[in-house]
Specification:
Layout lengths: L12 H31 L25 E7 L2 E8 L6 E5 L10 H7 L4 E5 L18 H14 L5 E6 L1 H12 L4 E7 L4 H9 L5 H4 L1 H5 L5 H19 L10 H11 L10 H13 L1 H7 L10 E6 L8 H9 L3 E6 L6 H4 L1 H12 L1
Parallel strand pairs: 3-4, 3-5, 5-6, 6-7, 7-8
Antiparallel strand pairs: 1-2, 2-4
Helix pairs in contact: 1-8, 1-10, 2-14, 3-4
Protein backbone atom coordinates (compact mmCIF):
# COMPACT_ATOMS: atom_id res chain seq x y z
CA UNK A 1 0.00 0.00 0.00
CA UNK A 2 1.37 3.40 -0.96
CA UNK A 3 1.74 6.20 1.61
CA UNK A 4 -1.24 8.59 1.82
CA UNK A 5 -1.20 11.29 -0.81
CA UNK A 6 -1.08 14.96 0.18
CA UNK A 7 -4.78 15.24 -0.66
CA UNK A 8 -5.52 12.61 1.99
CA UNK A 9 -3.73 14.55 4.72
CA UNK A 10 -6.19 15.96 7.25
CA UNK A 11 -3.70 17.90 9.39
CA UNK A 12 -2.26 21.29 8.45
CA UNK A 13 1.23 21.59 7.06
CA UNK A 14 2.19 23.42 10.24
CA UNK A 15 1.03 20.47 12.35
CA UNK A 16 2.87 17.99 10.13
CA UNK A 17 6.12 19.91 10.47
CA UNK A 18 5.75 20.51 14.20
CA UNK A 19 4.74 16.91 14.93
CA UNK A 20 7.56 15.55 12.79
CA UNK A 21 10.16 17.62 14.62
CA UNK A 22 8.72 16.61 18.00
CA UNK A 23 8.52 12.86 17.27
CA UNK A 24 11.84 12.45 15.51
CA UNK A 25 13.80 14.67 17.88
CA UNK A 26 12.61 12.47 20.75
CA UNK A 27 13.40 9.40 18.67
CA UNK A 28 16.94 10.73 18.13
CA UNK A 29 17.42 11.46 21.83
CA UNK A 30 16.23 8.04 22.97
CA UNK A 31 18.31 6.40 20.24
CA UNK A 32 21.46 8.07 21.53
CA UNK A 33 20.67 6.98 25.07
CA UNK A 34 19.95 3.39 24.04
CA UNK A 35 23.05 3.16 21.85
CA UNK A 36 25.15 4.41 24.74
CA UNK A 37 23.57 1.84 27.05
CA UNK A 38 24.21 -1.03 24.64
CA UNK A 39 27.81 0.03 24.02
CA UNK A 40 28.50 0.29 27.75
CA UNK A 41 26.94 -3.12 28.29
CA UNK A 42 29.12 -4.59 25.56
CA UNK A 43 32.28 -3.08 27.04
CA UNK A 44 31.56 -4.73 30.40
CA UNK A 45 30.56 -8.14 28.98
CA UNK A 46 33.11 -10.63 27.57
CA UNK A 47 30.74 -12.24 25.05
CA UNK A 48 29.50 -10.52 21.89
CA UNK A 49 26.03 -9.03 22.45
CA UNK A 50 25.23 -7.46 19.09
CA UNK A 51 23.54 -10.43 17.49
CA UNK A 52 21.46 -13.50 18.13
CA UNK A 53 21.68 -17.24 17.77
CA UNK A 54 20.32 -18.87 14.63
CA UNK A 55 17.53 -21.28 15.57
CA UNK A 56 16.35 -23.87 13.06
CA UNK A 57 14.44 -26.29 15.30
CA UNK A 58 11.38 -25.20 17.27
CA UNK A 59 11.51 -25.92 21.02
CA UNK A 60 9.48 -28.82 22.34
CA UNK A 61 6.82 -26.58 23.88
CA UNK A 62 5.84 -25.27 20.45
CA UNK A 63 5.34 -28.83 19.21
CA UNK A 64 3.04 -29.84 22.08
CA UNK A 65 -0.22 -31.15 20.52
CA UNK A 66 -2.10 -30.28 23.73
CA UNK A 67 -1.77 -26.61 22.82
CA UNK A 68 -4.19 -27.04 19.94
CA UNK A 69 -4.34 -27.58 16.20
CA UNK A 70 -2.60 -25.28 13.74
CA UNK A 71 -4.55 -23.91 10.82
CA UNK A 72 -4.82 -21.10 8.28
CA UNK A 73 -7.64 -18.89 7.04
CA UNK A 74 -7.54 -16.78 3.90
CA UNK A 75 -8.46 -13.11 4.19
CA UNK A 76 -8.31 -10.94 1.07
CA UNK A 77 -5.90 -13.37 -0.55
CA UNK A 78 -3.56 -13.58 2.47
CA UNK A 79 -3.19 -16.62 4.73
CA UNK A 80 -3.35 -15.97 8.47
CA UNK A 81 -2.02 -18.56 10.90
CA UNK A 82 -3.94 -19.57 14.00
CA UNK A 83 -4.04 -22.27 16.66
CA UNK A 84 -7.42 -23.59 17.74
CA UNK A 85 -8.32 -25.69 20.76
CA UNK A 86 -11.72 -27.00 21.82
CA UNK A 87 -14.97 -28.03 20.17
CA UNK A 88 -15.67 -26.09 16.97
CA UNK A 89 -19.41 -26.36 17.70
CA UNK A 90 -19.02 -24.20 20.81
CA UNK A 91 -18.93 -20.37 20.91
CA UNK A 92 -15.80 -18.79 19.46
CA UNK A 93 -13.35 -17.05 21.80
CA UNK A 94 -10.76 -15.20 19.72
CA UNK A 95 -7.43 -14.10 21.23
CA UNK A 96 -5.53 -11.14 19.75
CA UNK A 97 -1.93 -10.68 20.92
CA UNK A 98 0.25 -7.59 21.20
CA UNK A 99 3.94 -6.64 20.87
CA UNK A 100 6.22 -8.53 20.77
CA UNK A 101 4.05 -11.62 20.95
CA UNK A 102 2.47 -14.39 18.91
CA UNK A 103 -0.29 -16.97 19.35
CA UNK A 104 1.66 -18.83 22.06
CA UNK A 105 1.18 -15.98 24.55
CA UNK A 106 -2.40 -17.23 25.12
CA UNK A 107 -1.42 -20.80 26.06
CA UNK A 108 -2.70 -20.49 29.65
CA UNK A 109 -6.06 -19.08 28.59
CA UNK A 110 -6.60 -21.59 25.77
CA UNK A 111 -6.02 -24.48 28.14
CA UNK A 112 -8.49 -23.02 30.64
CA UNK A 113 -11.32 -21.95 28.34
CA UNK A 114 -11.22 -24.63 25.63
CA UNK A 115 -13.56 -26.74 27.77
CA UNK A 116 -16.43 -24.30 27.18
CA UNK A 117 -15.37 -22.47 24.01
CA UNK A 118 -13.65 -22.97 20.71
CA UNK A 119 -10.53 -20.98 21.56
CA UNK A 120 -8.57 -19.54 18.65
CA UNK A 121 -5.31 -17.58 19.00
CA UNK A 122 -4.16 -15.83 15.84
CA UNK A 123 -0.81 -14.64 14.64
CA UNK A 124 -1.52 -11.02 13.80
CA UNK A 125 -0.34 -9.38 10.60
CA UNK A 126 3.45 -9.15 10.71
CA UNK A 127 3.89 -11.99 13.22
CA UNK A 128 4.68 -15.71 13.18
CA UNK A 129 3.06 -17.58 10.32
CA UNK A 130 0.86 -14.70 9.11
CA UNK A 131 1.57 -12.31 6.21
CA UNK A 132 4.29 -9.69 6.64
CA UNK A 133 3.81 -6.83 4.17
CA UNK A 134 6.83 -4.58 3.79
CA UNK A 135 5.06 -1.20 3.66
CA UNK A 136 4.67 0.58 6.99
CA UNK A 137 1.21 1.86 6.09
CA UNK A 138 -0.02 -1.71 5.73
CA UNK A 139 -0.01 -1.84 9.55
CA UNK A 140 -2.52 0.96 10.11
CA UNK A 141 -5.17 0.16 12.73
CA UNK A 142 -8.16 0.13 10.32
CA UNK A 143 -6.47 -2.60 8.28
CA UNK A 144 -5.73 -4.62 11.41
CA UNK A 145 -9.37 -4.30 12.47
CA UNK A 146 -10.48 -5.61 9.10
CA UNK A 147 -8.06 -8.52 9.51
CA UNK A 148 -9.96 -9.58 12.64
CA UNK A 149 -13.31 -9.27 10.93
CA UNK A 150 -12.03 -11.30 7.98
CA UNK A 151 -10.58 -14.00 10.22
CA UNK A 152 -13.82 -14.37 12.19
CA UNK A 153 -15.85 -14.52 8.99
CA UNK A 154 -13.47 -17.08 7.49
CA UNK A 155 -13.90 -19.19 10.64
CA UNK A 156 -17.61 -19.25 9.87
CA UNK A 157 -18.83 -17.04 12.73
CA UNK A 158 -20.88 -13.87 12.96
CA UNK A 159 -20.49 -13.25 16.71
CA UNK A 160 -17.70 -14.09 19.13
CA UNK A 161 -15.98 -13.28 22.41
CA UNK A 162 -13.01 -10.99 21.84
CA UNK A 163 -9.88 -11.08 24.03
CA UNK A 164 -7.04 -8.63 23.37
CA UNK A 165 -3.78 -7.51 24.99
CA UNK A 166 -1.39 -4.59 24.31
CA UNK A 167 -1.60 -3.88 20.55
CA UNK A 168 -4.30 -6.53 20.50
CA UNK A 169 -6.09 -4.26 22.99
CA UNK A 170 -5.72 -1.26 20.68
CA UNK A 171 -7.15 -3.27 17.80
CA UNK A 172 -9.93 -4.66 19.99
CA UNK A 173 -11.08 -1.20 21.11
CA UNK A 174 -11.11 -0.06 17.48
CA UNK A 175 -13.01 -3.21 16.49
CA UNK A 176 -15.63 -2.44 19.14
CA UNK A 177 -16.04 1.05 17.68
CA UNK A 178 -16.56 -0.32 14.19
CA UNK A 179 -18.27 -3.69 14.61
CA UNK A 180 -19.92 -3.80 18.07
CA UNK A 181 -22.72 -6.00 16.71
CA UNK A 182 -20.25 -8.88 16.24
CA UNK A 183 -19.18 -9.01 19.89
CA UNK A 184 -20.92 -11.14 22.52
CA UNK A 185 -18.57 -9.96 25.28
CA UNK A 186 -15.01 -8.70 25.37
CA UNK A 187 -11.98 -8.88 27.65
CA UNK A 188 -9.11 -6.43 27.20
CA UNK A 189 -5.82 -6.36 29.10
CA UNK A 190 -3.17 -3.68 29.66
CA UNK A 191 -4.06 -1.44 26.77
CA UNK A 192 -6.41 1.59 26.93
CA UNK A 193 -8.35 2.86 23.96
CA UNK A 194 -6.89 5.68 21.85
CA UNK A 195 -8.93 8.40 23.56
CA UNK A 196 -7.76 7.51 27.08
CA UNK A 197 -4.19 6.93 25.90
CA UNK A 198 -4.03 10.42 24.39
CA UNK A 199 -5.59 11.93 27.50
CA UNK A 200 -2.87 10.26 29.58
CA UNK A 201 -0.17 11.54 27.24
CA UNK A 202 -1.33 15.13 27.76
CA UNK A 203 -2.10 14.86 31.48
CA UNK A 204 0.17 16.66 33.93
CA UNK A 205 -0.65 14.07 36.61
CA UNK A 206 0.20 11.02 34.48
CA UNK A 207 3.59 9.43 33.84
CA UNK A 208 2.41 8.08 30.49
CA UNK A 209 4.49 10.43 28.35
CA UNK A 210 7.76 9.25 29.89
CA UNK A 211 6.55 5.64 30.06
CA UNK A 212 6.08 5.71 26.27
CA UNK A 213 9.78 6.35 25.55
CA UNK A 214 10.16 3.07 23.66
CA UNK A 215 7.53 4.12 21.11
CA UNK A 216 9.86 6.90 19.96
CA UNK A 217 12.87 4.59 19.90
CA UNK A 218 10.92 2.18 17.70
CA UNK A 219 10.63 4.85 15.00
CA UNK A 220 14.33 4.40 14.19
CA UNK A 221 15.00 1.62 11.65
CA UNK A 222 17.71 -0.91 12.49
CA UNK A 223 18.35 0.48 15.98
CA UNK A 224 14.93 -0.66 17.23
CA UNK A 225 15.57 -4.12 15.81
CA UNK A 226 19.05 -4.11 17.33
CA UNK A 227 17.57 -3.23 20.72
CA UNK A 228 15.23 -6.24 20.72
CA UNK A 229 17.84 -8.73 19.45
CA UNK A 230 20.61 -7.40 21.72
CA UNK A 231 22.14 -10.13 23.85
CA UNK A 232 20.38 -12.91 21.92
CA UNK A 233 16.92 -11.46 22.52
CA UNK A 234 17.71 -10.77 26.17
CA UNK A 235 14.71 -8.44 26.29
CA UNK A 236 12.25 -11.34 26.24
CA UNK A 237 13.22 -12.65 29.66
CA UNK A 238 13.06 -9.19 31.23
CA UNK A 239 9.82 -8.43 29.43
CA UNK A 240 7.91 -11.58 30.35
CA UNK A 241 9.15 -11.90 33.93
CA UNK A 242 9.01 -8.19 34.72
CA UNK A 243 9.86 -7.54 38.37
CA UNK A 244 10.12 -11.27 39.16
CA UNK A 245 13.27 -13.36 38.96
CA UNK A 246 11.39 -16.50 37.99
CA UNK A 247 7.87 -17.79 37.52
CA UNK A 248 6.28 -21.23 37.14
CA UNK A 249 4.13 -19.72 34.38
CA UNK A 250 7.01 -18.36 32.28
CA UNK A 251 9.63 -21.07 31.85
CA UNK A 252 12.96 -21.15 30.05
CA UNK A 253 11.19 -23.15 27.36
CA UNK A 254 8.60 -20.41 26.93
CA UNK A 255 11.33 -17.79 26.52
CA UNK A 256 13.09 -20.02 24.00
CA UNK A 257 9.81 -20.26 22.06
CA UNK A 258 9.87 -16.47 21.70
CA UNK A 259 13.51 -16.45 20.64
CA UNK A 260 12.90 -19.16 18.07
CA UNK A 261 9.84 -17.43 16.60
CA UNK A 262 11.39 -13.98 16.26
CA UNK A 263 14.73 -15.29 15.00
CA UNK A 264 13.12 -16.67 11.86
CA UNK A 265 13.79 -14.79 8.61
CA UNK A 266 11.69 -11.66 8.18
CA UNK A 267 10.14 -11.79 11.66
CA UNK A 268 11.90 -8.91 13.42
CA UNK A 269 11.00 -5.71 11.56
CA UNK A 270 7.22 -6.11 10.84
CA UNK A 271 6.10 -5.83 14.50
CA UNK A 272 7.77 -2.41 14.76
CA UNK A 273 5.67 -1.21 11.85
CA UNK A 274 2.64 -1.06 14.17
CA UNK A 275 4.34 1.79 16.03
CA UNK A 276 5.71 3.42 12.89
CA UNK A 277 2.32 3.38 11.16
CA UNK A 278 0.69 4.86 14.28
CA UNK A 279 3.09 7.80 14.53
CA UNK A 280 2.97 8.52 10.82
CA UNK A 281 -0.81 8.52 10.99
CA UNK A 282 -0.74 10.97 13.91
CA UNK A 283 1.65 13.22 11.99
CA UNK A 284 -0.47 13.19 8.83
CA UNK A 285 -3.92 13.36 10.42
CA UNK A 286 -3.33 15.20 13.68
CA UNK A 287 -3.36 14.01 17.28
CA UNK A 288 -6.49 15.91 18.32
CA UNK A 289 -8.47 14.90 15.25
CA UNK A 290 -7.72 11.22 15.85
CA UNK A 291 -8.77 11.48 19.51
CA UNK A 292 -12.10 13.09 18.61
CA UNK A 293 -12.93 10.22 16.27
CA UNK A 294 -12.48 7.64 19.02
CA UNK A 295 -15.78 8.35 20.78
CA UNK A 296 -17.30 5.50 22.77
CA UNK A 297 -19.78 7.17 25.13
CA UNK A 298 -22.71 7.15 22.72
CA UNK A 299 -22.09 3.72 21.22
CA UNK A 300 -24.13 0.87 22.64
CA UNK A 301 -21.57 -1.77 23.50
CA UNK A 302 -21.62 -5.31 24.82
CA UNK A 303 -20.41 -6.02 28.34
CA UNK A 304 -16.68 -5.83 28.78
CA UNK A 305 -13.93 -6.59 31.28
CA UNK A 306 -10.69 -4.61 31.52
CA UNK A 307 -7.86 -6.41 33.34
CA UNK A 308 -4.72 -4.53 34.31
CA UNK A 309 -1.43 -5.74 35.75
CA UNK A 310 -0.47 -3.02 38.23
CA UNK A 311 3.30 -3.56 37.78
CA UNK A 312 3.06 -2.43 34.14
CA UNK A 313 6.02 -0.22 33.18
CA UNK A 314 4.53 0.82 29.82
CA UNK A 315 0.97 1.91 30.70
CA UNK A 316 -0.11 4.20 33.56
CA UNK A 317 -2.54 2.51 35.97
CA UNK A 318 -4.67 5.66 35.85
CA UNK A 319 -6.13 4.29 32.62
CA UNK A 320 -8.26 1.82 34.63
CA UNK A 321 -10.34 4.46 36.36
CA UNK A 322 -10.58 6.59 33.22
CA UNK A 323 -11.92 3.69 31.16
CA UNK A 324 -14.38 2.80 33.91
CA UNK A 325 -15.74 6.36 33.89
CA UNK A 326 -15.94 6.74 30.13
CA UNK A 327 -17.20 3.35 28.89
CA UNK A 328 -20.55 1.88 29.82
CA UNK A 329 -21.01 -1.78 30.78
CA UNK A 330 -17.31 -2.11 31.60
CA UNK A 331 -16.02 -4.00 34.61
CA UNK A 332 -12.42 -3.53 35.72
CA UNK A 333 -9.98 -5.73 37.61
CA UNK A 334 -6.49 -4.78 38.80
CA UNK A 335 -4.03 -7.64 39.34
CA UNK A 336 -1.70 -6.09 41.90
CA UNK A 337 1.35 -8.32 41.27
CA UNK A 338 0.86 -8.60 37.50
CA UNK A 339 3.18 -6.99 34.97
CA UNK A 340 2.35 -5.73 31.48
CA UNK A 341 2.04 -9.32 30.23
CA UNK A 342 -0.44 -10.12 32.97
CA UNK A 343 -2.09 -13.03 31.13
CA UNK A 344 1.24 -14.88 31.19
CA UNK A 345 2.61 -13.47 34.42
CA UNK A 346 -0.49 -14.11 36.57
CA UNK A 347 -2.64 -16.53 34.54
CA UNK A 348 -4.50 -18.02 37.52
CA UNK A 349 -5.79 -14.62 38.65
CA UNK A 350 -6.54 -13.56 35.08
CA UNK A 351 -8.41 -16.77 34.23
CA UNK A 352 -10.41 -16.56 37.46
CA UNK A 353 -11.46 -12.99 36.61
CA UNK A 354 -12.49 -13.99 33.10
CA UNK A 355 -14.44 -17.02 34.33
CA UNK A 356 -16.33 -14.89 36.83
CA UNK A 357 -17.10 -12.28 34.16
CA UNK A 358 -18.36 -14.80 31.60
CA UNK A 359 -20.80 -16.55 33.98
Amino acid sequence: MAPPAASQRTASIGWVLMASVYVYSKAFAYSCMMMGFMLLKQLTTPRWLFGYKTRTTPPQCLQDPDLGQHGYVTVKGEKFHYVGKGDRAKPLMLFVHGFPDFWYSWRHQMKEFSRDYWTVAVDMRGYGGSPKPADVFDYAVPLLVDDIKGIVTALGREKFILVGHDWGAVISWAFLDRYPEMIEKYIIMNGPNSKVFMQLQRSSTSKQSSMSWYMYLFQVPYLAELFVTFGDFGLFRKMLLGHKRSSPFVTDGDIEAYKYTFSQPGCITPPFNYYRAFFRSVILKGLVREAKKAKTENVERPKGLYIFGAKDVAIDVQCVGMLKEQIENLETKIIEDGNHFVHQDEPVAVNKSIQSFLK
